[in-house]
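User: These chains co-purify. Model them together.
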Amino acid sequence: EVQLVESGGGLVQPGGSLRLSCAASGFTFSNYAMTWVRQAPGKGLEWVSSISESGGSTNYADSVKGRFTISRDNSKSTVFLQMNSLRADDTAVYYCAKGGEANLRWTFDSWGQGILVTVSS
Amino acid sequence: EIVLTQSPATLSLSPGERATLSCRASQSVTRYLAWYQQKPGQAPRLLIYDASNRATGIPARFSGSGSGTDFTLTISSLEPEDFAVYYCQQRSNWPLTFGGGTKVEI
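Assistant: Joint model of the two components:
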């Protein structure tokens, strides 16, 4: 059974940093692309960032480009999201999501339970 | 950026009725469109990928259709557990984008 468990969220002041982790199990992690998606309170889903299977290719939403960095450690089956220069509008539940097979890597067939990040003074 | 517009924002129906949800893209996404279901306090769940393919374990009452810019998710006969918010998502171009969602309520 696929499991994705996020950690590292919490309350941070504007301008601060957080590092989210997503520990994966139940599948061969290095064979799948991974993505972070967020959801502000009471709002819809927003794609944040994606990383290829090897980690050699990454993409970011304009809203986080230059502030967030996605990475992965295939030896530990974990994907990370380093978030710097955090702003109030980054407040959201952050989900990690597993890509599908082959050409479906940017369709998300499994999701973590989500982790809340609150940016406030 | 490809904008996905979902309509209606809210759909008020009863169990047993048919639900028809729309997702319109600002430019063609060919068939690279997925649908997700999200219930309160839960993570989204993949229902349909590439416009019309049901994901593993998804009941046959869920079906998807469309191509290019116009897509439809149909729930043939609503079950009580189907009342939720539904999102479409395109993977045709970066950035990946989601629609604003349709809430299906009783």
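The two ends of chain B are 34 Å apart (CA to CA).
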